[in-house]
Amino acid sequence: MTAENFMTSSRIISGSLVWSSVIFCVGPGRSGDIHTLRHLGEGLGYEVDVVQPALVNDQMISSTRIRELVSQGQVVMPQPY
Predict the structure, then answer these.
(1) What is the pLDDT of residue 77?
(2) Whole-angstrom distance, CA of residue 18 vs CA of residue 37
(3) Which one of 5, 20, 30, 64 is CB 3.0 to 4.6 Å from 25, fit for a cystine?
(4) Which DSSP string do the residues of 3-71 spell out, in sequence order?
(5) What is the Cα–Cα distance from 22 to 36, expressed in whole angstroms?
(6) pLDDT at 75
(7) CA–CA gap between residue 3 and residue 8 (Å, rounded)
(8) Cα–Cα distance for residue pair 58/54, rounded to 1 Å
(9) pLDDT tens by residue, 40-49
(10) Structure pTM?
(11) Residues in the chain with pLDDT < 50?
């Protein structure tokens, strides 16, 4: 699925604010990045705010890391920040 198809099918409500990490990537070969997300937002009617990656126990929080922990049966408890 291309980055454009992913964002179009994500059902983001027009006028929404999307928070994303500066290291955001989506699509084949991670072809869509934060610049793609912003560009698509102009056409789809959402804004993008960028946040710096967060670390827990010296490891970056990412969807990949969360999937790894879930597959290992570990539970990640959210921490306030």
Answers:
(1) 58
(2) 9
(3) 30
(4) HHHHHHHTTPPTT-EEEEETT--BSGGG-B-HHHHHHHHHHHT-EEEEEPPPEETTEE--HHHHHHHHH
(5) 12
(6) 66
(7) 9
(8) 9
(9) 889 888 899 9
(10) 0.64
(11) 81
